[in-house]
Every structure is written in C-alpha cells, then in structure tokens.
Amino acid sequence: MRRGFLLAAAAAIALLTACSTPSVPGSTGQGGSQAPATGDRLTIGTTADVVNYNPLVGNSRTDSWVTNLMYPHLTQMDEAGKRIPYLATEWSYSKDGKTATVKLRDDMKWSDGKPVTADDVVFAVTAVQKEKFGVVAGLITAMEKAEAVSPTEVKFTLSRPDGTFLDNVGFWLPIVPKHVFEKAPSVQKFANDANWVSAGPYKLTKVERGQRYIMERVEPFGPGQPTVKEIVFRVFPDVNTEVLALRNGEIDLIGNVLPPSTAADLKNDPKLKLVQVPSLGWAHLQYNTKRKPMDDVRVRQALAHAVDYEAIRNIALKGYAKSANSSVLTPSQPDYADPSVSEYAFDPAKSKQLLQEAGVTNLSLSMIYDQADPNIARWAPMVRDAAKQAGIEIKLQGLERNTYLDKTLKRDFDIYAGSWAIMDNPPANLGLAFKTGGFINYAQVSDPKLDKLIDEGQRALTREEAKAPIQEAAKIIHDQVYDNVLYVETFNIAHSIKWTGFKPMPSELLSIVNPLSLAAVKPAS
After folding, report:
1. Most buried of 123, 248, 325, 457 (most Cβ within 10 A)?
2. Do 126 and 63 sit in the same domain of this protein?
3. Last residue of a domain, one of 153, 181, 209
4. Quick check: helix, strand or coil at residue 415?
5. 474 in a domain, yes or no?
6. DSSP 8-class letter at 312
C-alpha cells in the first residue's frame, strides 16, 4: 500500500498510492562526479519534504524514509517480501490462536540512553488502538490488549484467531519511546518535530526544509552498524532535476521509483546502475458498486473487457510491467497466486454484448485520478480511448492530489484509477480493501460470501491454511470485477556505480532507502 497501508483519513490513500510534493532544490555547489565514493556521506534525492516526523502518522515517501531510519519496527522485509527479525527476535501464536507472543532484542537504546523495551511496544500499539488512527488501527482489530511480560517479551491477547496479526503489527507499527510520546495529550496529534529521541541506525541532526535533511550514524547500533557515517536527503522539485543531479554526481541515488520513460533513458548510462524489483502492489481501476448501472456485474465486466491491458503495459509503462492476470493475488505473491485465473481480454464486442444484456445504452462515466501520478496520467487517456471502441464514454478527471484523496475517501466517483504500492499480506489486504466496511474498500463492496471467506483466511494461523479461502475470495473479486487489476509494475531505482550492497524492497515506500539497505551499502571497490 502507500505507506501501502494508510495512516489517518487522508493519508489512507497516501500509503497506497504514490506521493509527490514540489520543493525547492538544495545545492551543495559541488559536482563531485569524478571523486570516488567514501563511507563518509551518502546523498539521496527525493521530491518531497518531510510532512510528519511522528512515524505513527507520517504520510509521504520522505516521511517513511527518514522516520524508518529513526524508529524501529518489530520486523523488516527481505527482497522477497518475507518478514525477518529486527527489534523482534521471534514471534508465535498459541495453539488456539488467541494469544500472540513477541520476544525482543535486549541491546537497542533510545538516543537519550534509555533502553528500548516491551513497554515501548505496548505503548505504541495501545495508543493506536485507543485513538483509532492510521492503517495499523485497521489491521489490529482482533487485539484486546497488549502487555509487557518482561522487558523483552510482549503478549497480545486476541478476541479471535487472527493469523495476520503478527505480520501486520510487526511490519507496519513503528515503535516510539513511551517516555517521550506519553507526555502528549494525543499521540496522533503529537508533532514530534524537534529534539528527537530515536533508536534507529541513524539520528536526524539537521533540517533545512526544502533543501536537505541530515542524519548521522548511531554508534553502536544493535542490529548492525552501517558503513556510511552520514545520510543526506536532498529535496528536488521533480524527477528530471533529480536525474540531472545524479548524472552530475551531486547525489548518489534517487530514492523514488523512476517513471518508466526515465528508466528507459538511463538504462545505458555507464555511470549509473538501475536496480529492478517487482512491486508487491498493483495499478487498478475500481468501479463504484453503489452507483447504477455499475451495481450490475455485467456492466463491470463490460468495463473490464473495454481495457487494452497489454497496450498500457507496453506503451505507458515502456514494458516495465507484467500482467496480474486481473487478480488481486499477483505473481509477486507466489504463495497465494492462482494460475487458473486469467486476465480479462480486451474485447469491445464482448463489452457491447454485456451492456446489451444489462439493458444499458449510451453508458457515460467519469474517472478520477491523481494528475501528479506520471504513470496514471499516461495511461488514463488510453483507458478512455479503448472504451470508445465499446461505445462507452469515459470522462477523465485529473485532479489535484488533495481533491483526489477527498473524493476517494468520500467514495465520490464512478471510476477510480489508482494504485496500491504494497499489498504484502493477502488475508489482511483483502479484509481492508474488499470486506464490507473495510478501511480502504473504495468500491463499496458488500458481499456476504466474500466476507466469510476473508474471515476464514484471516483466522488461519499459517499461509497453507489461508491459501484456499483467500484464493476463492480472489476469484470472486475477479469474476465480480470488484477490482480491475491492470498490471504489476517493475520498479526501477537508480544509483551511482560508485556504491554497492543496496537491498531493494518491493515497495516504493521502502525502495533501496530502507534500514537494511542503508546499513549494508558501501563504496564500490
């Protein structure tokens, strides 16, 4: 999702869709393109300032990149999307699935010298539960209470078996210092914009808004001390300016995923390396099932057959995308993907037939999208033009981001064009996106059979047990066109060949700018 899952009403989409805020670039006044890299400084380009320093409510890419280096999560993600230990060393469920236990490292400290303990974990998750904000609140609905059994052990009591709980709380919940955040009347409203007390591999030491954010290495750091002493995030107004700075040697890498056309231009530059990784999310069209005539599955199927998926992938995405088989269980999720499900064929004649069967003529709909999203802005006209061949009129509404978010949250649209940046846990993801009343159920799906299958998948304590009901649920979503998945993007991230060791993660929110990656990167020999 875009901090792929959402953090507070307007931020909900921000986690699942790309985010960009124009800023004034800073300049070091030095090209440095010929100087060899050292372990002293790594400079990263971004197109957005930090909006929120409170990691529990941050909602831009740069928010995530900076605060993830300051505040630990229980688990991290490897390149395949699997959970791996970080603050947590091990985690498990009881036999009945109603108790979850997490054991913690004992060697991590906050920057003021106090130890990171189970009390901090309990405070963070309880604050989110009580104040009911952010995507984490939507992912921990089974939690009755959390308690510190010891300084290094947390026990969660659940109201029902929930095999998604530990994955969700482990990966999505930033751990904050209780002794700092508890002083605020509201954790959600705590700005945390100065005098930071953190416990990551880097600490934030200087902020020049619109220019740069400087972070210094923490020594020692329990999970592993990074090679690079200083991380600098430089703010640029757009990707083109970032690319120029990268080519000139002013920065070492671009944190945000490159638009496909830009990646195609850079792939043969001998001074740069393109890192490619398939996304755990997808681009899609959602049809408002509460608006006529889209409450009729035949109309939704007609719309699905009126999209030229291959053209979108090859032309708009320059080939940096693959088919999702029109399924929410994409090839990026091999443990769940169902090979029996196939992509809707682009078939205008079939669309016309389905509309005729539904008794619909002169179908005219509007489609909203974020006009600042370069990929969607490129393929939205292709959706409109292909639909014309089926006799369907689609009126494009490219909107300023805040207006787009507002309309989406209010479900004020016929067709929604967007993307989930990371959908890493299908049982939990489907509950958020397609269960009746789900936090990001923008299509307003309400299907009792689907709800039952998602519940069954979430109760399962292993992936093996969850697979069958979740695959059946995904087939319903496919056949009923509750979501029309267009493609899975192949992300391209560019860095100078002077550096090596980056660990790419399958999300733009993680990119190669994540704690594991920046702890491993080093100058190329």
Report:
1. 457
2. no
3. 181
4. strand
5. no
6. I
Q: Give the mean pLDDT of 402-423.
A: 92
Same domain, 60 and 141: no
Length of the chain counted residue by residue: 525
Q: Is residue 388 part of a domain?
A: no
Number of domains in the chain: 2
- 3-state secondary structure labels for all residues of 87-101: CEEEEEECCCCCEEE
Which runs of E-coded beta strand occur in 362-414?
364-370, 393-399
* Residue 418 predicted with pLDDT over 70: yes
* Model confidence band, residue 484 (pLDDT cutoffs 50, 70, 90): very high
Asked, for residue 444, whether it belongs to a domain, the answer is no
Phi, psi dihedrals of residue 420, rounded to the nearest 5°: -100, 125
| 3-state SS, residue 16 | coil
Quote the domain boundaries for residue 132: 75-181
Domain presence at residue 289:
no
Pairing outcome for strands 393-399 and 364-370: parallel
Question: Among 69, 82, 72, 56, which residue's Cα sits nearest to residue 135?
Answer: 56
The reported pLDDT for the residue numbered 28 is: 37
Tokens coding 31: 């090209």
Q: Is 418:370 a contact under the CB 8 Å cutoff?
A: yes
Q: What is the mean pLDDT of residues 29-52?
A: 76
Helices (H), 133-177: 134-139, 165-172
For 184-190, the CB contacts below 8 A with 24+ separation are 186/131, 187/54, 187/56, 187/127, 187/128, 187/131, 188/8, 188/54, 188/56, 188/57, 188/127, 188/131, 188/133, 188/134, 190/54
> Looking at residue 19, what is its pLDDT?
36
59 and 205 co-located in one domain? yes
Checking if the pLDDT of 257 tops 70, the result is: yes
